[in-house]
Amino acid sequence: MEFSSKLLEKAVNEMSQLPGIGKRTALRLVLHLLRQPNEQTNQLAMALQTMRNKIKFCNSCHNISDTNLCEICANPHRLDDIICVVEDVRDVMAIENTSSFRGLYHVLGGKISPMDGIGPNDLNIQSLVNKVKEGKIKELIFALSSTMEGDTTNFYIFKQIQDCNVITSTIARGISVGNELEYTDEITLGRSIMNRIPFESSLKL
């Protein structure tokens, strides 16, 4: 792809680094921004810079937040003895959109995947285990994607806490095996949360 401007080429190259954005799409987006008023482009650039510099991760659940404690964890009306374990913040958003869960979350930040060099120590697993061992958690809901990596991560956590007095469950398999949680429709995801099953039972499926 030939460019008449080095500035344009650099902008397109940077934009194409985003997931799902190829060079042609990046060019279309950059040219669109060029046609917008300077104020609008500046506001976009400022919003991205502010987000990158000031965004935090919740000290309790590791969800993205503007403060040290996210709005979900700080909400006194949430059930603080039920924790839903998810892979990343997109899964929190997906489950919240169902309005079917009133507990808290724990964001692992990924899944155990030896092929990708991701082990238990690379994820927010130990802080979850510590929460359970404190004895204040009644139920842990595994809501990771139905993939080999997701099942491996669930099982690893289960082994770490199986001697603790806590109920472990997993979302119902209304979600197709191999599907990512964030792409599941809200009705199916909501029913899966409501109809969760004991984790030990899922090991026999």
Number of domains: 2
> In percent, how helical is the residue content?
40-55%
- Rg from C-alpha positions? 20 Å
Q: Strand fraction band?
A: 5-15%
Shape: elongated
Predict the CATH topology of the largest domain: Dna Topoisomerase Vi A Subunit, Chain: A, domain 2
Mean pLDDT: 88
N- to C-terminal distance = 51 Å
CATH level-1 class of the largest domain: Alpha Beta
With strands numbered from the N-terminus, the spatial order across the biggest sheet is 4-3-5-6-7
Instruction: Give the helix tally.
Output: 9
Structural class: alpha/beta
CATH architecture classification of the largest domain: 3-Layer(aba) Sandwich
Task: Give the SSE string.
Answer: HHHEEHEHEHEHEHEH
Largest sheet, strands/sense/barrel: 5 strands, mixed
Number of strands: 7
Uncertain stretches of 5 or more adjacent residues: none
How would you characterize the overall build of this protein?
The protein has nine helices and seven strands; from the N terminus they run αααββαβαβαβαβαβα. The strands form two sheets. The chain has a five-stranded mixed beta sheet. It has a two-stranded antiparallel ribbon with strand order 1-2. The protein is elongated, with a radius of gyration of 20 Å. Helix 1 (about 5-15) packs across helix 2 (about 25-35). The relative contact order is 0.10. The chain has helices spanning about 5-15, 25-35, 40-55, 70-75, 90-95, 125-135, 150-160, 185-195, 200, and strands at about 55, 65, 80-85, 105, 140, 165-170, 195-200. With about 200 residues, the protein is an alpha/beta fold. The mean pLDDT is about 90. It folds into two domains: about 5-55, Orthogonal Bundle (Helicase, Ruva Protein, domain 3); about 60-200, Dna Topoisomerase Vi A Subunit, Chain: A, domain 2 (3-Layer(aba) Sandwich).
